[in-house]
Amino acid sequence: MIDRTPGARRAVLTAAALAEPAASLSGYTVGVTADRRKDELSTLLEARGARVVVAPALRIVPISDDAELRAATRACLDSPPDIVLVNTGIGMRGWLEAAEGWGLAEPLHAVLSGAYLVARGPKAKAAVRSAGLRDDWSPDGEGYEEVVEHLTARGIDGRTVAMQLHGESQPEYTEALVSAGAHVIELPVYRWAPPTDPAPLHRLVDLIIARLVDAVTFTSAAAVQAVLRAAGTGADALLDALRDDVLAACVGPVTSAPLRRHGIPVAVPGRARLNSLVRTIVDELPKRAVTLQVSGHSLTLRGHAAIVDGELRPLAPAPMAVLRALAGSPGRVLSRAALLQALPRGADEHAVEMAVARLRAGLALPGVVQTVVKRGYRIPT
């Protein structure tokens, strides 16, 4: 299900059902910031039981009529590059289509045929081969660092490198190649633009800050930067949430780089594939779950649900927030005022009482949430 608001209820999942792979992410909410492949990624996550919040951070804008790309293409024809770095399949196809529109397809194909072609990933490789060209090398990890290391080891002093940009300039990699003596032609084959409707992105930012999502997926470094920009003055709060409570899951090392610079721990699959990204989330999220033994019962907290003796019981945000606060200090009495801090702004102490009542009903376990007269509530140890 797409958009998939927090607070929606689901039927209780039995222990047998919860043990199935299709329920491995049940009880968790995952944000998706991709645009072009949002449906594919959402389907993969939902197939494992996750609730998904779709909020494209950016959209791809082709620039087939862009003067900068045309000038860069002319530069490649006038001074054929020794090396061509193909970063994405969509970028390679867009460049060739643009060249065809300008009547430059054949001379560009001839230039590319004579160059040492580096394809950074399987989609880039597929695009190269579908154009009738031959790729010469691909990095195992699909990272720019590997590419720079490989090219500098080959020797690029005095050589020309044409580098397809991944939606925006990558000055650190251009500078590394220039420092090694190369002349670099940057090819802006497409650009990132803000989403047509920014409301879902701003809503996702709010959900991250409020810890109402358990993980956020990123498939490009530009999307990371777009989410930080969307947070505005709340960027520090968003980064705090990603450091402590919300899993940042990135498709590859290039995507994760901006988060690492902010000291954010990231989960990155061994291979830059959506399937691998989802498997990484399946592996990582359960490790972060809190599990307690309470009054002879097993209680595990997931994002918007509790697993009670093996059965998953969905909870609305307010009772889940109360449960999380109480589970953070088992045995300790938390006052209504203290629990109020865990609820959304504008709530009062009556809202705490309502949340506790709904929590007890949702867990259906007498004695798990105890009232301590005139003091507050606790989970017994």
Automatic annotation (TrEMBL):
<dbReference type="Pfam" id="PF02602">
    <property type="entry name" value="HEM4"/>
</dbReference>
<dbReference type="InterPro" id="IPR039793">
    <property type="entry name" value="UROS/Hem4"/>
</dbReference>
<dbReference type="InterPro" id="IPR003754">
    <property type="entry name" value="4pyrrol_synth_uPrphyn_synth"/>
</dbReference>
<dbReference type="InterPro" id="IPR001867">
    <property type="entry name" value="OmpR/PhoB-type_DNA-bd"/>
</dbReference>
<dbReference type="GO" id="GO:0003677">
    <property type="term" value="F:DNA binding"/>
</dbReference>
<dbReference type="Pfam" id="PF00486">
    <property type="entry name" value="Trans_reg_C"/>
</dbReference>
<dbReference type="InterPro" id="IPR036108">
    <property type="entry name" value="4pyrrol_syn_uPrphyn_synt_sf"/>
</dbReference>
<dbReference type="GO" id="GO:0006355">
    <property type="term" value="P:regulation of DNA-templated transcription"/>
</dbReference>
<feature type="DNA-binding region" description="OmpR/PhoB-type">
    <location>
        <begin position="289"/>
        <end position="381"/>
    </location>
</feature>
<keyword id="KW-0456">Lyase</keyword>
<keyword id="KW-0238">DNA-binding</keyword>
<feature type="domain" description="OmpR/PhoB-type">
    <location>
        <begin position="289"/>
        <end position="381"/>
    </location>
</feature>
<dbReference type="GO" id="GO:0000160">
    <property type="term" value="P:phosphorelay signal transduction system"/>
</dbReference>
<dbReference type="InterPro" id="IPR016032">
    <property type="entry name" value="Sig_transdc_resp-reg_C-effctor"/>
</dbReference>
<dbReference type="GO" id="GO:0004852">
    <property type="term" value="F:uroporphyrinogen-III synthase activity"/>
</dbReference>
<dbReference type="GO" id="GO:0006780">
    <property type="term" value="P:uroporphyrinogen III biosynthetic process"/>
</dbReference>
<dbReference type="InterPro" id="IPR036388">
    <property type="entry name" value="WH-like_DNA-bd_sf"/>
</dbReference>
<protein>
    <submittedName>
        <fullName>Uroporphyrinogen-III synthase</fullName>
        <ecNumber>4.2.1.75</ecNumber>
    </submittedName>
</protein>
